[in-house]
Specification:
Elements (H helix, E strand, L loop, with lengths): L1 E4 L13 H11 L7 H8 L11 H4 L3 E3 L8 E7 L4 H5 L20 H9 L1 E7 L8 H14 L6 E6 L4 H12 L7 E5 L1 H12 L18 H7 L6 E5 L6 H13 L6 E2 L1 E2 L8 H4 L4 H8 L2 H7 L1 H10 L1 E2 L18 H4 L1 E6 L13 H8 L4 E3 L5 H7 L19 H16 L3 H9 L2 H16 L1 H17 L1
Parallel strand pairs: 1-2, 1-3, 3-4, 4-5, 5-6, 7-8, 7-11, 11-12
Antiparallel strand pairs: 9-10
Helix pairs in contact: 8-16, 8-20, 10-14, 12-13
Length: about 475
């Protein structure tokens, strides 16, 4: 199987890149796309929509130019989406902005599109660092295929950590498409293998000059020495980007009077993405899912959201989260200073079930956790060979699809654990020793096989191409 790019020399430019960005990169950076993220944002007022992901590290040596594809070759044409898919798909863009009335297929050269249709070539639409796929993704991609007279079977969708993608797609397809032509969908637990690899290598080996001497994760020795000892706080809860369920949780912790008793981070002005006091009401539909109607929300809960926003930010391990991401930024002290984590995964309300590095950080730092996210997360962990924390944590919430019920069950469990004495918490944590050790060892083993997992992934992609 060949990996095909339209421009691969002297530098690799992502396939299906907006022509204005390509022009800008060629004119100002001699085609060196990888160094242009901040410059593109500054020049166009918009971020990249595609990029060269870390997958390139595995297949760069076998990349060929589209001109080198032979009629009998099996090949894939990666389109690697950067961040939100809506920019690449031309959805919900402001009028007269870069991505308005445009989609990625318009940047695929006609000769390439013809080869895709006439040979054993496939568009590999990847979201390496993003697992969120909603039904509008499938709907818009279907429209793009129809406008290009490109069969749906010519698209392979590869998501990251989205263990529910096949079921979600099948439901959408059955409801909307009256044909046997289908997208090919796949999931790869990128966050698991990449985070496991990072911990195998040692977080400290990824330090920048700015973070020198600060990074690290909980070692086996640290864990063993911590057993039977008191910790200053019950739980740890990291929040970077402020999604609806995250600000709601912060509001609920304020309402319960336990925010200050635990380690909870947030930053409402992150990257200028969220001028939050002005957009809280754009989340009104999510608020109503829990508080039933707007009147009840405003009467019973709005004041706690406002209190959360007035706090602006609260830091645990870094002073500013703007340049801190899910990888290469871990500090071990907060993990040793708390008994468990409340993991606010990237999604709670929308029907897109995926697991990110937020969960795997807990496993790599010997932390039991509650998932404040989608249902069936714990079920997927078991499918992957991990153990979960019942009966120490009531995990019945994981089976509950109803958002309001699951939300309140999780809050109830947080409240229960908060009321346990410190002496009991010490025993509670220590009694999970075997579970935490098993999970850590399994996590490290999977991370050590990252390269093998990636080879297996591409074998599976090639198999998709031949079916």
């Amino acid at each position: 199987m060949k990996i095909v790019f339209d421009v691969n020399k002297p530098y690799l430019i992502p396939n299906a890149c907006h022509p204005e960005i390509v022009k800008f990169v060629l004119q100002n950076f001699d085609g060196n796309y990888d160094v242009t993220e901040s410059y593109v944002r500054e020049h166009f007022g918009e971020p990249w929509h595609v990029y060269n992901s870390s997958f390139r590290n595995f297949y760069e040596d076998i990349i060929v130019n589209i001109k080198e594809v032979n009629p009998d070759d099996t090949w894939i044409y990666p389109v690697e989406i950067f961040g939100d898919f809506q920019k690449s798909f031309g959805i919900n863009q402001k009028p007269n902005t870069l991505y308005d009335s445009w989609n990625f297929s318009q940047s695929i050269p006609p000769t390439t599109m013809t080869k895709l249709k006439q040979s054993n070539g496939y568009i590999l639409l990847t979201m390496v660092h993003e697992g969120l796929v909603v039904d509008s993704f499938f709907e818009r991609l279907w429209q793009i295929c129809m406008s290009n007279k490109l069969p749906m079977k010519k698209i392979i969708i590869l998501t990251s950590g989205n263990h529910g993608i096949e079921k979600q797609y099948n439901t959408w397809h059955q409801k909307n498409v009256q044909t046997t032509d289908r997208f090919k969908v796949m999931n790869y637990h990128y966050f698991l293998y990449e985070k496991g690899y990072e911990y195998n290598m040692g977080i400290e080996n990824f330090e920048s000059e700015e973070l020198k001497g600060k990074l690290g994760s909980v070692s086996l020795k640290d864990f063993q020495n911590s057993l039977g000892k008191s910790r200053d706080h019950k739980f740890l809860c990291f929040n970077r980007r402020i999604h609806p369920h995250r600000v709601m949780l912060i509001g609920e912790l304020i309402k319960m009077g336990i925010l200050d008793d635990n380690l909870v981070s947030f930053q409402f002005n992150l990257d200028g993405d969220f001028n939050f006091p002005k957009i809280t009401d754009t989340y009104i539909e999510e608020f109503k899912m829990i508080y039933d109607d707007e009147k009840t929300y405003r009467k019973e809960f709005e004041r706690y959201i406002k209190k959360a926003v007035r706090l602006k930010k609260r830091m645990i391990d870094h002073e500013d989260l703007s340049n801190i991401h899910g990888f290469r930024g871990d500090i071990k002290k907060p993990w040793l200073n708390t008994y468990y984590s409340v993991v606010t995964e990237s999604n709670f309300f929308r029907r897109s079930d995926y697991i990110t590095e937020k969960t795997w950080k807990c496993v790599g730092n010997f932390h039991p956790f509650i998932t404040f996210g989608r249902p069936n997360t714990m079920k997927e962990l078991k499918n992957l060979g991990f153990k979960t924390f019942h009966p120490f944590i009531d995990e019945s919430y994981d089976k509950v699809v109803d958002n309001k019920k699951r939300y309140n069950m999780i809050l109830g469990e947080i409240k229960r654990l908060q009321n346990i004495s410190d002496k009991e918490m010490i025993k509670w944590y220590s009694d999970m020793k075997d579970i935490l050790l098993h999970n850590y060892n399994h996590f490290m083993e999977l991370g050590s096989k990252r390269n093998e997992q990636f080879k297996k992934l591409f074998d599976e992609i090639e198999e998709k191409c031949t079916k």
